[in-house]
Amino acid sequence: MTAQKYRHASSVARSVAAPTPAGECPPDLIEAAVEGLSGCTDNALSQAVCRGIVDPQEVVDWTNRTERLLRFQFDRAELRSEIPAVAQRLHALLVQLDLPLPNDPGAVTRAFVSSLVGLRELIADDVAAAFEGDPAATGYEEIAVAYPAIRALSIHRIAHELCLRQVPLIPRIMSEYAHDRTGIDIHPGASIGRHFFIDHGTGVVIGETTVIGDNVRLYQGVTLGARSIKKSSTLRGVKRHPTVENDVTIYAGAKILGGETVIGAGSVVGGNVWLTESVPPGSQVLADPPRHAVSRDDRDAMLPLQLPWDD
To answer: What's the mean pLDDT when you consider all of the chain?
Structure first.
């Protein structure tokens, strides 16, 4: 059979086996998928969706608008139109949720609007802390618009305010949005004091029941987390993340775990430290430095000292 005849025979075979146009699925295949994917079954994902969930994109849109209101809008005319818009959008989100009594969408919305001035003051204090803590900062304006920590903290402080009002789901969507944008993972339940600064920020994790005092500084890669047990679900509602008192500095890569772990006021925790027990105020906690092995290639005295490489 020639190549031309072979190609023709192949195309005939394909047309018999696949009567639908290229790229389309047969109707019975589509219907089988519809049957398997529809309805509310007893699996976890189906139960979550069938109970009704708020649209995450609507939460993200509201988050961006509210964060912009708090960080960048100072004109009175703008504020008089923007504050009611933010309130109306929040109310529209809240009516889609089952709020625990005695909360209701109207009361939560009014309480949130009442908190706006205090939230801006907290964010402004965080900007000041970043300027004081980072010699690379050229001014407040650079920090306000370009520092990922300020964005993550702004969203966290908004989300935490809703968390205090026992609003479900929305604060968690907000925190994961901030995590995705900045690499900083702060659970909305975490309590963070004034004048807080995260330098660089990438890889920072702050767990749900963490309590952080005033004037605290963290560097990248810090974890304020929980110790893992086989049945971690039994710890819901229990304090399982550390407490960091006022004026503490925690350097890059430190891991501090456990609900009973307290870092005393004024302490310094060095890089890559692993802590599962409390330290008193004024402590300096350092990890033993690693021992470096350096060799010299005597066959070429002009080579600098270097680590041995595998061939």
So the answer is: 89
What is the assigned CATH class of domain 190-229+237-286? Answer: mainly beta
Nearest to 265 by CA among 247, 250, 243: 247
**pLDDT reported for residue 252:** 97
222-233 exposure pattern, b = at least 16 Cβ within 10 A, e = fewer = bbbbbeeeeeee
What's the rounded mean pLDDT across residues 214-239? 89
Residue 242: which of 253, 232, 256 has the closest Cα?
Answer: 256
Mean pLDDT value of segment 169-175: 97
pLDDT at 146 over 90: yes
- How many residues are present in the chain? 311
- According to DSSP, the residues that pair with 243 across neighbouring strands are 211, 262
Q: How many CB atoms lie within 10 A of CB 112?
A: 22
* Phi-psi domain of 2 (left: phi exceeds 0; alpha: psi -120 through 50; beta: other): beta
Contact 188, 162 (CB under 8 A): yes
pLDDT in tens, 108-142: 999 999 999 999 999 999 999 999 999 999 999 99
Q: How far apart are CA 215 and CA 196, in angstroms?
A: 6
49-184 folds as serine acetyltransferase, domain 1 (1.10.3130)
The residue ranges of every structural domain in the chain are: 49-184, 190-229+237-286
Strands across the sheet containing 223-225: 185-186, 205-206, 223-225, 255-257, 274-275
190-229+237-286 and 49-184 share a CATH fold: no
pTM above 0.70, yes or no: yes
Helix, strand, or coil (residue 158)? helix
